[in-house]
Amino acid sequence: MDNALLEQLGTKIDQLLDEMELLRMEVSELRAERDSLTSERDNLLSNQTDSTDRIKALLGRFDNLDAA
């Protein structure tokens, strides 16, 4: 192989390595975002469960009033 081909190959490899690093950073950012969204979802589900329990308790109080 002549020098020009080796230089082109070296340039392509450098570009590939740069692209791989950018993709690694993007994957890392997406994983952090996923973890944040998962945590937010878990909090929302917990709040929904708490709200549902409170509504059931209030409805139970209405049922007690109707029975009285």
Secondary-structure map:
Blueprint: H1 3-67
Protein name: Cell division protein ZapB
Pfam families: ZapB
Keywords: Cell cycle, Cell division, Coiled coil, Septation
Structural features:
single chain, mainly alpha, 68 residues, rod-shaped
Number of β-strand runs: 0
* Envelope shape: rod-shaped
Radius of gyration: 29 Å
> What separation lies between the terminal Cα atoms?
97 Å
Average pLDDT, rounded to a whole number, is 94
Q: How would you sum up the major sheet?
A: none
Strand content: under 5%
Describe this entry's structure for a reader:
The chain is built from 1 helix and no strands. The chain has 68 residues and is mainly alpha-helical. The longest helix has 65 residues. 0% of the residues are buried. The mean pLDDT is 94.
